[in-house]
Design a protein that fits this description.
about 180 residues; alpha+beta; Ubiquitin-like (UB roll); five-stranded mixed sheet; 4 helices
């Protein structure tokens, strides 16, 4: 069964399968999050959203979320997309946070910071991070590849129709 997920304020929504992490749903739908994971270790607030409705459909908060977001406080509706899995069926509405990396950092400085953090990881964490990035890349590539057959099929059919018209007009001209 599918679950309806809406990202506000953009209004982007779509259906995803139960068991999907919210970060994967956001990527598949193209929700404009405006930021990404800064550390690869799920220890930053880069993917924080506020759950407007459907909190009961989501996995229990992880220890990381409780530590970073103070989820033990009553009324706290914040969740991390990378930590939260959809476990029930229904409708979920999320408000994207306004978190952004420091504006003073250029892309090259941010890349250097990420490289430095990656270099500090142990071997197991490095392998896990690389596998995670590979899975994300593969998912995005497969999504793009699934869109291509329709375009290619349309071009093939157009070519066949053009040849058929050309053959038909040739046969009329040369009986």
């Amino acid at each position: 069964m599918s679950v309806s997920v809406t990202f506000e304020p953009s209004g982007i929504n779509g259906l995803v399968a139960q068991g999907t992490y919210l970060i994967d749903a956001a990527k598949r739908m193209g929700a404009p999050l405006g930021h990404g994971c800064l550390s690869g270790k799920s220890d930053c607030p880069a993917c924080v959203v506020s759950v407007k409705s459907g909190d009961e459909l989501l996995s229990a908060p992880t220890a990381i979320e409780e530590k970073l977001l103070g989820l033990s406080q009553p009324g706290n509706t914040l969740r991390m997309l990378c930590q939260t899995k959809i476990e029930g069926h229904g409708e979920i509405v999320l408000m994207v946070s306004s978190f952004k990396p420091k504006e003073s950092q250029s892309n090259s400085e941010l890349a250097a910071d990420i490289e430095r953090k990656f270099a500090e990881l142990g071997l197991k964490d490095k392998i896990a991070a690389l596998l995670k990035f590979e899975a994300i890349t593969m998912t995005e590539a497969l999504d793009a590849a699934m869109q291509k057959p329709l375009a290619a099929g349309t071009k093939v059919l157009d070519s066949i129709m053009a040849r058929a018209k050309a053959n038909k007009s040739d046969s009329k001209a040369n009986p």
